[in-house]
Design brief:
Layout lengths: L1 E8 L5 E4 L7 E4 L5 H15 L23 E6 L1 H4 L9
Antiparallel strand pairs: 1-2, 1-4, 2-3
Length: 92
Amino acid sequence: MQYFAFVERDANRRYSITLPDFPGCVTEATSLSGITDAAQQAVSVHLARCVTPLGKPLRAEMLPPSFDTREGYWMLVDMAPVIETYPPGVGW
């Protein structure tokens, strides 16, 4: 399953990753190549603590408009390897 992540680069050349499908789920990576791993790890922790059902991934037209004024970009991150490790009913 592909989920949107908003990626921003800070002055220290670190990448901040926000995952709007997972409320409050924000993480960092030190390189572009580390974004997927960092996002998957953050979602794994989020799902372990999740008490609300996980819905279907947001569609592009449903992305939060609050990101429109920020400098960064959207990317899709494959969360299937993470989500598949949780039994049905956990996190959704």
